[in-house]
Design goal:
Chain B: It holds the Pfam family RRM_1. The complex is a heterodimer. By secondary structure, chain A is an all-alpha fold. Chain A contains 39 helices and no strands. Among the domains of chain A are: 223 residues, Serine Threonine Protein Phosphatase 5, Tetratricopeptide repeat, CATH 1.25.40; 116 residues, Serine Threonine Protein Phosphatase 5, Tetratricopeptide repeat (Alpha Horseshoe), CATH 1.25.40.180; 122 residues, Serine Threonine Protein Phosphatase 5, Tetratricopeptide repeat, CATH 1.25.40.180; 113 residues, Serine Threonine Protein Phosphatase 5, Tetratricopeptide repeat. The two termini of chain A are 44 Å apart. Chain B is 30% helix and 19% strand. Chain B is built from 6 helices and 6 strands; from the N terminus they run ααβαββαβββαα. The chains are: A mainly alpha, B alpha+beta.
Amino acid sequence: MTTKGGRNRNGGGYSDDEDDDSHNKSQQRQRSSSSRHHHHYHHHHRSDRRYVQQPNQSFQQQSYDPNKRRKLGGLNDEELTEDKLQIALFTLGQKIDSTLEQTLRDLCTTICNDLSKHKKTIFNILNQCIQLVPERVTIYSTLVGLLHASVITFGSDFLDVCVSAFKENLLSYKFEIIQRYIRFFSDLVNVKLLSPSSILALYDTLIEAATETNIPQVRTDFFVSCVLTALPYSGKILSEKNNTELGRLLYTIDKYIYNRSKIHTPILQVWSSMEPHPQEEYLDCLLAQIKRLNQDEWAESQIFRPYYSYADTLFSDASASIVHDLPMVNIPEHRDGIVYPPPKIVFRMFDYTDVPEEFVLPGAHAIERYLIEDEISNILHTYHTERKDCAMQLTQIRSNNKIPLNYMIVEVIFGHLFMLPRPRHLELFYGSLLLELCKLQPSTLPPVLVQAVEMIFERLNTMKTACIERFVKWFSYHLSNFQFTWAWQDWIDCLDENPESPKIKFIRETLQRCMRLSFHQRVIEIVPEQFYKLLPNKPSPVFKFEENDAPVFGSEYAQLLVKKIKERAPAEDILRILNTVPSPSKDDSSLVTPSSSTVTQSSNELTYTMVQIDIFVSSLLWVGSKSFTHSFAALAKYHQLFKILIESEEQQIQVLKSMYEIWPNHQQMMVVLVDKLVKTQIVECSAVANWIFSSELGTELTNFYIWEILSSTIEKMNRQVEKHHNELLDLRRQLNISTTVQSASSASLQADPMPTEAPTVSSTDEKPSDDAKMDEGETSNNDEEKSKSNNLKRRRESDDDEDDDNERKDSAEKMQISQPPMDEATAKLQEKYEMVEERLSHAREQQKKLYLIVFQRFIMTLSDFLNECESKNVDPVSTPWLKWIMERLQEIFLLYHEQVFQYVSTFESLIFTSDIDFSILEVFQQFCALRA
Amino acid sequence: MSDLSVPFLFQKSVSLSSYRDRRFSGGEVEQDKKLLQSTTLYVGNLSFYTTEEQIHELFSRAGDVKRIIMGLDKQSKTPCGFCFVEYYTRSDAEQAMRYINQTRLDDRIIRTDWDAGFVDGRQYGRGKSGGQVRDEYRQDYDPGRGGYGKRIVQGKEMEKGGVI
């Protein structure tokens, strides 16, 4: 990134490296013909047989996906037309140029010629375009208008297809597509295909849905927003032809929006402060923009309206084409379980004073601001899978020269990145997109980005913790792509602030992430000396049992274990040594589990003490401390031993404590180790939650990695539930199928594709066992270990393995199912169904328990803090601590609202009761309002 | 909504490149099939000094990483500039192809490609000298990948020997 000082090393850096790469590639290619040993990776665009055979010479500029058509024998006429049209229509208007007018005319002629033969295909692709490429809707309506003017039957035929597609999407509640059709229909008024009165009738129908009672606000919000977002397209013509009705419509919308509840707004706002810009509720803002547009007599300068270039064809008085009425459409009724688009806020970080003088940033309530933002958002969504195309499309947005397009692009991208509850796309997408934009516009975009970072930095105090975390992750990633160049000295002034203050925390966490993307020494080199106190510690392990003058209790055992583990001793040997560890002192009950003297289960083994577990875990992690792979290999090798040693939650927490003692300076290591411990079921999710809130981690609680661990743990729990849920759905489907098949007295279950696919699945699925997997990254002398360690039969398989095993078992079962007569197979399926059902309900219980623990521990921790503040006469709101923890509670609610909402009544009656502090209860109430 | 139904527009980054593993045991059709279902990526042009930790930090931003296998020099058993990253799901691996390919790690533009799935032995460089083949013949000086190409170094040493 170019810094304020104007250093710009990056623009060139990219191309240099790419040249290097292609240089290497061409070398390899040259050699490939002569060298026998050619088995190297070289990447050039596919130019093999299949590609050459693509019958799309006229569209060579498009890189065509070779996987799309597998047939080598050429395509039939229909497919050929489909390919040709698909490319022509989807790329229509993608580039700004003066040829669009002619291209549209030519395309119209081509389609007219093909229409009688390929009507279905043409209509189908046009509908796809309307659904998938909303940012070019006016180009498609122009084309449709031209076709309508050229072919007498086109209008009514096409309308029929469109309306039925629209109805279909209404019935299946595809909200985004519904909205896109409504906007398209509105624009068809402009090309004289639809009558203004019939589009008004559609608006009235939608608004009527807003007067229903006993339905969620999010439903009515959606229909109202559909009308508001379509009005910029149709408003002008409606105000000329049906001004009274339009006025009445606006009045109804105004009244609705005035009366709606906005309790949900604060929890969605990126900044808690209204200064310098209010984070407006989206419908409030949109209504204000539309009202302003109405006052301006619907004159706007942003929407690209190519139809005006065809006045001779479209708007001549001699035109014989008929204006159609849009048929009446029924809005399907509300059903429970429909998830409507959630409410939003409008993210704004710039105003006109922030942009250079030659530009004019449209005001917050100017319709142009909305229209450009909407176009940017649409492009982000349409092209989110291709970051380079996405960047290219963004820079080609048509706007007048006064619009500071880069400011608006950066604002919208940050708005998406910070969106609560979560961004629409992967955070990494936005980061990689900004990189592409910097590459495309190396002199104009980076300065805007730098300004944005500075502004966000200045507003960190009121920024939501979840958003600060995303900001840290993006910023460190961005820096890592620009040699970590940044004007750090500009931030020196804040270094005297409270070490927990948002700005200091931001810098500290950013440096931590920079280290994770590079290495410790590198981070030391990138910052001025004054920042050294914020640098992460060197991420080295700490082994408390190391030989020194004052050895701690158990050192001799630990050292013996280290030696044995290094020698790859079998688990039995390790266990034997552990069994010789005496309890440190009989009366020291804090170190011994309460049940330590009782005999467990069937065997005569005692539960292992915290000391024994600590010695084992410390020694094992110490031996594996060289890398992630070494640590994972160590855990995998002694997995069975873990299963013998660790039973109770207290013991599980001890594993985590020992890990923390070895790795207090390596946050990323802790993140991946906890992940592994949970995945391999050595530690349960609830133990992680309890550990995170334990007193040992008290001072760490405001550090971001702790929440990285908690979220990842919660997500694993959620995924587990989801997995069983999907299995159940799948079985339900199979059961239905098998009964249908049975009733049709078909010979076997093979009608069901699952069993026939099963053998392929298992053959491609020959994954090595967990032990083998973990060892592969290491050197070869591990191989013999594999067989040794495989001799130890594990009591429980790891999560990874369980999946594989289940798959194998599944396929095996499926194979069997197809053998015996039907009723037996069905009975087996039924049996399995019940088993999965039970697993699911067990997982749900676990999930509920996990959330209960998390919320309970939040309340305890927050209440303790509030009490302490009271006794010390400190205003808690003035402390950064309260912000960090309270907003994490908010974040958990937001991130996992789908899951939390399932158990909301339990939480309400058990923990979020009136006796807890109101500031905590308020978070819960705001959360509940999200669905109201 | 099936917003990815137009492959030539929206699936370019995840489609297969022209590279095929010549040592793959099976036909091209089978290899292609595996590549299209794969959850494993080959990652190239890494610095020899780039660690598993760094790779994990970057690639876990695309999804849950199952394992990372560092490419090692066959002789020295030290990293030689490539690795395999395996994800739990295809869609996470696709995200990495979309957003990580051709971006930087350790100040180098790295390259990702589909891999048919790790098999033992693949972690070693296939060059004569133990590293990757590309480092055998490389003409430029690349401090992140052991300086000059191995053949060039050999040539220079021979030259030197001749002079002395």
